[in-house]
Amino acid sequence: MTNKFSYKIKTAFIALAMVGMSSCEVTDLQPATIIPDEEAFTDASRINAAVLGIYEAAQRGFYLGSVQRGYPFGAASTQQGDMRGEDMYNDQLFYEITYINGHTPQSANNNGQWISLYRMINRANIVIENLDQALADGVLTEAERNTFRGEALYLRALAHHELVVFFARPYSDNPSSMGIPYRTFAINDVSKVQDGEAVGRGTVESVYQQLLADLDEAEELLPTSGNAFRARSQAAIGLKSRVKLHMQDWQGVIDEYTKLAGELAVTEDPLTPFRGGTSSDNIFSFENTDASNAGVNGALPNMYGSPDLGARGLVKISPVIWTQDFWLENDSRRSVLGEEDGMVTVGDLGIFTNKYVDNTTFSDPTVIQRFAEVVLSAAEAHARLGNTGEAVSLLNQVRDRAVPAGASYTAAGLGGVEEVIDAIIQERRIEFLAEGRRFPDIHRLAGEGRIPGIPQKAASRSVNSIDFYTGDEEITLDHALEYSSNLFVWPVPQEEILNNASAPIEQNPGY
What is the pTM of this model? Predict the structure, then answer.
């Protein structure tokens, strides 16, 4: 075959079945360090390692030909979600291209996200395609096969949803608009490359339909027990809640919440989900240890932590959100690290999150889904359906644990339906600060016309003292982006298009 498939994209799609096996950049399809599928799936422990390889591809990812940079689900992806919004602040050059909406088909950050997500997806598909044969050969029990398949389906869906949020217009605007390639088969041989190239972008609606199909099956297959570091049925349910929120399937969001309401709970202390990642609020997290993490430039505590505590401090809380009237001054999510643990650290340069603390061995988990998100999504869904009483009750489940007694919201006090929805969206901004959830909300809300696009932010590299948080310095605003701009949606990597010889992927308009 004379196919000129890019070596970067090829790395994303060629078999990478075994965790712990070094996968160098190659120009052929038979790297010596990869165990062939016919061997990798003949032993239960090796199959488990192949499944763990999907998690590894998500946790540590790919960037400019190397791993350990925080793509697709480490610090890099969290920063992308935050830097596209206004509530976290870009303090240095590192993520300025995202912060100022400057991506191009050649820029590294969006390319790294695309490549690493499809690399992760391909690992999932390799596992999925080999499990039934392993079951037939007696290598796995049916229960083991089901769990492994459920994990792979969940992770495949998680990756595709990340792609459709950043590289396609929102479902809330036009479900018939151009989606992203949803890959449901493995590319682990030269003969499959052309078939892989032929998978088109489809529509946003078709992507969401496949997301729900994967997650419905995963929910049925996955166990309900276990911890948040491997997918359980609760993870599939929680992700369906997120997906249905983007689809504006309000009753569907409520239905998914109802499944989890008796099993999970928000924690009394808002900091608890970030101190080990195994609380009643933690639905799914990627585990990091001193021996396995996303490295110096991919670790959340290093990127988000205060320089006063030895971290790099590239991203801090923006004075835009810190000075909002709706964020009460005595909210415990503004608590300062001191003699006791706190949610933030305060220094001369500004205010940093204290959700992530281990900037030495980088062992903080990357929290992907929390029950608090499911609760606030259900609150919004109820409000959208006009059930303001139930909406405010759910909103207070999250908010009341952080605000003083007597500060609870009431439906009457907030006003009408629109005011209740606004209060819920404001609460999401506070609760999920520094977790990468802001742009997904901007994406869906701008798509429905509720907000005009990406809001104004504090000008990049201008907030250099605590005075911007106290009101002693005026905040210079910049970097707003209208929803109608082509820059609202990231471009497909140019290499992906140029090197797809048989069926080039269509580029997003305007690039």
Answer: 0.93
